[in-house]
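The authors assume throughout that readers already know how a fold can be written as discrete tokens. What matters is that the chain and its backbone geometry are given together, residue for residue. A single example would do more here than another paragraph of explanation. For illustration, here is how one protein appears when written out as sequence plus structure tokens.
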Amino acid sequence: MNRLLILGGGTSGTIAANRLRRRLDPGSWAITVVDETDTHLYQPGQLFIPFGIYRPRDIVKPRRRYIPPGVDLVLGEIDHVDADAGKVVLRDASELPYDYLIVATGTAPRPDQTPGMTDGAWRTSVHEFYTLEGASALADKLADWEGGRMVVQIVDMPIKCPVAPLEFTFLADAFFTERGMRDRVEMVFVTPLEGAFTKPIASKHLGAMLEERKVALESDFVIERVDPDARTLVSFDEREVPFDLLVTIPLNMGAEYLKRSGLGDELNYVPVDRQTLLSKAHDNVFAIGDASDIPTSKAGSVAHFSTELFEDNFVNHVQGRPMTRFFDGHANCFIESGNGKGLLIDFNYETEPLPGKYPLPGLGPFTLLRESEANHWGKMMFRWVYWNLLLPGKEMPLEPLMSMAGKEVGEA
């Protein structure tokens, strides 16, 4: 009996469990998923909690509901992986041997990595929305905040869902406008990047949207520390950005057990081949979703597209055949822009976001790099798609590899 161990029951781990259970002979393969809790969180929904659009109960479901029959779910905290011995050791000292390992434990915010961030102002004047607890605390803060200087700040890249800080800023602008207090809120977007986004064409479009909304852009800001008493961000080049309310996106890092196991890089991401997701150090270890070091967005769409290709590669690999389904870094992200509108971007390792129509050339219904109501509804309807199609690993009418069809090359 071959033993497949999947570490992490989030988006990519659950998709992989569902797809591989259908592909691997249950008489020859035992599949086990390991996670700390039985709670599955729809992470894109955290963006909407601070503004009262969603509540926590809208984005949380039992994890077991999405683990397929024939796959075991073990709840426990991982202490370390012994890759040479082929086993995972849990905190309670129990051991789970494996023949093949899939690392899918994602990435998480680490505010403790920035000096001063979690000191006295944490959850009072310093907030984040990348955890359910943080998004809920920020909702309470915004409910009766009377205004002042709001700073939305990114510590460093990569981060989970790199457009989310911009989405939060656009939604905050609409939220304060609707409440009749926008004139009492000064908004600043602080980023270590040269512009509003990682890709030049998209950065130009998104930067213009910040300017239209009277949001100041502070670029190339590499934070050294937070001064919670003075309510100030301090950069390594000694610039200072004061705030009344800081909404930070802390440094994102992979799971600590990967560091203890010697499987991760300096940010605890597993170095893999960017096309096949096979570990560069171990021939029976893969890393999928946000857990790998591939140079693309840490986003749900990447988990979806890459895992769809990974399924075939894994089956071929364990049967001694070449892996032929090469991932191209395809990502697409709806960007909620407020007032019932949104954008969509579609790109990969080599091609940056371009204007156009998606997924059908000339028809859409979604517009690339342009605001539309259809994009907003695409964003909102994705929650149903996530629970009912994506997690169960069902076929979706989207190609995993990026297509240039519908894109307006030279029109950006």
Summary: The CA atoms of residues 147 and 184 lie 5 Å apart. The first strand starts at residue 2 and ends at 7.
